[in-house]
Design brief:
Layout: H1 2-37, E1 43-48, E2 54-61, H2 68-80, E3 88-95, E4 98-105, E5 127-131, E6 153-164, E7 173-184, E8 190-202, E9 212-224, E10 228-236, E11 241-251, E12 257-272, E13 275-278, E14 283-294, E15 299-307, E16 313-323, E17 326-335, E18 338-348, E19 360-364, E20 367-373, H3 399-408
Parallel strand pairs: 2-3, 6-19
Antiparallel strand pairs: 1-2, 3-4, 4-5, 6-7, 7-8, 8-9, 9-10, 10-11, 11-12, 12-13, 12-14, 14-15, 15-16, 16-17, 17-18, 18-20
Signal peptide: 1-23
Organism: Mangrovibacterium diazotrophicum
Protein name: Exopolysaccharide biosynthesis protein YbjH
Length: 412
């Protein structure tokens, strides 16, 4: 009996060793294909269970496509083509090396929503998407990633269009700039941004006639327990502001709700013909926002209140509807005794498929965003942004919205 037990244990150990070696070799092949596709921050761990099934955990950096939904779809299709349907696949989406979302596919077959979306990959897999709480990333983050996001810089060309309607004899005053930006992430959670504005057409303010700096910022994000995130940004913002800004985000697992609080200490900043006209950093602004996402209609509602940098207090309500990757919304605000309103749009404009395999990644801005106000000359209800990438389709994404984008995407 003792000999039979020893033989069984030896056979079991040999099977596990061979299975592990095969799994490791398969993992290396998949990692290489993910790299050839263009992904960054690639880690992959395949664990073979005693029952014969396996669990694959993979990390990729967000930003290969115009939306994380397309990134998830591309990665899931590739992994699904290498592992049987019984394999559980987990994909952790990173941003500057920090976990943001996690997709888990149990491998069970499901029907495809649209008949023209029949593929051999993720369309046949049931998956669940949530905010990443670090659970799966902590098990694999010790691995050295294939193609680190911190090994290169991103050069992005942003178009800027400003419209203002203040005269009776002229429909619009227009300013159009090209605003290329360099972005570099030296370590996890840190993003450095340097941007210059090149005027192409301007009949707005005097400063718009000159080449001048745009966003010059350093942002550090921290992922805290229980889906709390903090982002501290210092530097030069838009709306002629510079200083420091702190944002706190609170997300809720499997919930359409989220909360954001923001506080900033800024001053006036403007460059005219290479002369920096600025004031001391002493203007305190803050706001608190509650958001709800109605997945049935791809509709997001935001209600916020706070103090703007001119010292006026006010409230604002936004309704934003997503049509695929295009976002269209309306808003109403009241601040400092002035009522205002308007609409905003975010439209994907990058026509290229990226392959992040070089030290410098050159791309067009993923989205063009524009906000139109009915009373454009008002000095109340004004706030700033801290990044050239802030828009209604790319920032503060809900898992339900990304889920919708994954199902809508196709592998071409």
């Amino acid at each position: 009996m003792g000999n039979l037990t020893r033989r069984f244990l030896h056979t079991l150990a040999a099977t596990l060793v061979v299975g592990t070696a095969v799994a490791q070799q398969a993992a290396k092949e998949v990692q290489q294909q993910l790299r050839e596709t263009g992904f960054e921050e690639i880690r992959l761990e395949a664990v073979r269970m005693l029952e014969g099934d396996s669990i694959v955990t993979c990390t990729v950096e967000r930003g290969l496509e115009t939306s994380p939904g397309k990134d998830f779809r591309k990665a899931l299709d590739l992994l699904s083509s290498h592992y049987p349907a019984t394999t559980t696949i987990r994909i952790v989406m990173l941003e500057q090396g920090q976990a943001t979302y996690v997709l888990e596919s149990a491998g069970s077959a499901v029907s495809v929503q649209n008949s023209d979306e029949q593929t051999d990959g993720s369309s046949q897999r049931a998956f669940e998407l949530n905010y990443a709480d670090g659970t799966y990333f902590k098990r694999i983050e010790w691995q050295k990633p294939l193609r680190s996001v911190h090994s290169g810089v991103t050069f992005t060309i942003f178009p800027q269009l400003r419209l203002q309607n203040t005269y009776y004899d002229k429909i619009y005053e227009v300013q159009f700039n090209l605003a290329p930006a360099l972005e570099y992430s030296p370590w996890r959670g840190m993003l450095l941004t340097g941007q210059m504005l090149f005027p192409l057409y301007n009949d707005l303010d005097y400063a718009g006639d000159y080449i001048r700096p745009g966003f010059l910022t350093a942002r550090q994000q921290f992922n805290l327990p229980h889906l709390n995130r903090i982002a501290l940004t210092v530097g030069n913002f838009n709306q002629s502001r510079y200083g420091a800004d702190l944002k706190w985000y609170k997300f809720f697992q499997n919930s359409p709700w989220s909360v954001r609080a923001q506080i900033g200490l800024t001053g006036h900043s403007n460059v005219k013909n290479w002369y920096w006209d600025h004031s001391s950093v002493e203007d305190l602004s803050w706001n608190v926002r509650a958001s709800y996402y109605l997945s049935r209609y791809n509709l997001r509602a935001d209600v916020q209140a706070g103090r703007y940098f001119a010292g006026d207090y006010g409230t604002r309500v936004d309704l934003t509807r997503h049509f695929g990757q295009v976002s269209v919304g309306f808003y109403a605000s009241y601040a400092g005794g002035d009522a205002n309103g308007g609409f905003h749009v975010a439209i994907p404009i990058d026509p290229f498929r990226h392959r992040h395999q070089h030290a410098v990644r050159v791309m067009v801005a993923p989205y063009f965003d524009q906000e139109y106000t009915l009373e454009g000359a008002l000095t109340t209800a004004r706030y700033y942004e801290t990044s050239p990438r802030e828009n209604r389709s790319e920032m503060d994404l809900y898992p339900q919205y990304i889920d919708y984008l994954i199902n809508k995407s196709k592998t071409k």
